[in-house]
């Protein structure tokens, strides 16, 4: 009995984790490289386009950059 309960619990946890890992967001490009930019060139921008192909609303909580001089604002 204990073994069956343990196995069922394990399967349910794996199922829940696989559901959480699936995202419905699809980006046109997941990353963008501006290359080498001189400060005298002025500001540069790039717009990421994404669409939600999932069944539930998605929320972007964090955007990460590889350079401290980059500010990633998020616009709806």
Automatic annotation (TrEMBL):
This is Secreted protein containing DUF1573. It comes from human gut metagenome.
